Amino acid sequence: MSTTLSARRPGTASSAGGRAGDAVFSALSLGAGILIFAVLAAVALFLLLQALPTFAAPAAEVTGGKGFLSYIGPLVVGTLIASVIALLIATPVGILVALYVSHYAPAKISKPVGYVIDLLAAIPSVIYGAWGATVLAPALVPLYTWLSDHAGFIPFFAGPASQTGKTMLTAGIVLAIMILPIITSMSREIFTQTPKLHEEAALALGATRWEMIRMSVLPFARPGIISSIMLALGRALGETMAVALVLSSGPMIGSLIRSGNQTIAAEIALNFPEAYGLRLSELIAAGLVLFLITLVVNMIARAIIARYKEFSGAN
After folding, report:
1. Exposure pattern of 209-218 as b/e (b: 16+ CB <10 Å)?
2. What are the average pLDDT values for consecutive 10-residue runs of the chain, which has 315 residues?
3. Same-domain pairing of 70 and 213
4. Residue 249 maps to which CATH number?
5. N or C end: fewer C-beta atoms under 10 angstroms in the chain?
6. 84 and 2 in a common domain
7. Is 25 in the same domain as 168?
8. What are phi and psi of 259, to 5 degrees?
9. Whole-model pTM?
10. Are 192 and 54 in contact (CB under 8 A)?
11. How far is it, in rounded angstroms, from Cα 75 to Cα 53?
């Protein structure tokens, strides 16, 4: 007994070993954090150094003959348009599916649905791109023709519709399917972590299930939902092969149902293998712009989450 008690007293060998373990784990965690920061800084430095020839080159020598800003501008717009379309489609669908799985569906249905949603995240992007180019794009041609005939007064649907279906709207739909598992899975996990006492209290006060979700679940899950949306946006911004297969390369146009447009990631993927000299520097400079866009998106997400973290619904 005395031996057992002495082993538990502060200052014994067991306590010293625990403090040593804490110190080692803390050092490893700090080292991992520094390593990630160092890798990120190295990537940024590499992109900047390799892109310098593009920034210093005369405007006439850059692709398009009007300078780097004229070259990268349409690519940035195309990247943002495709990502916004994907978010507009995937966000409400993902949140509704997550709510159904977590609060409405019985267990025998919610588990298979959850498995199927998670399985979507495991499908390679090239498969999505091939499906979008060969199946989805031709199937959407009649819809694009109808939009051109009946909604052509809207700039997004102006002009003759694409006869191949390889348009920015098709790319946005494919991206929406690709990011749907991210939003759904993260939102579902957050919804299931809502304090049961809050849900039961709302129901006990006479609230309907939807009112309980609106007053208890959604406020608690708001930071997590924002995180899932921003993570999905990062995936959409950087997606390469699916967009490269679905989009028809061409000049930037305002309509979503005409062939053309391009994104930064797809531009790099399609041209990098054969690029050299200044052209290679241009593509790396485009990658630097995409890197900065992703960094800004994550900073904005952090700011939004920090704004709401004081009220999580569980405080």
Report:
1. eeebbebbbb
2. 48 64 87 92 91 87 83 87 92 92 84 83 88 90 88 81 84 92 90 86 86 88 87 86 79 72 82 85 91 87 72 48
3. yes
4. 1.10.3720.10
5. N
6. no
7. no
8. -70, 145
9. 0.83
10. no
11. 19
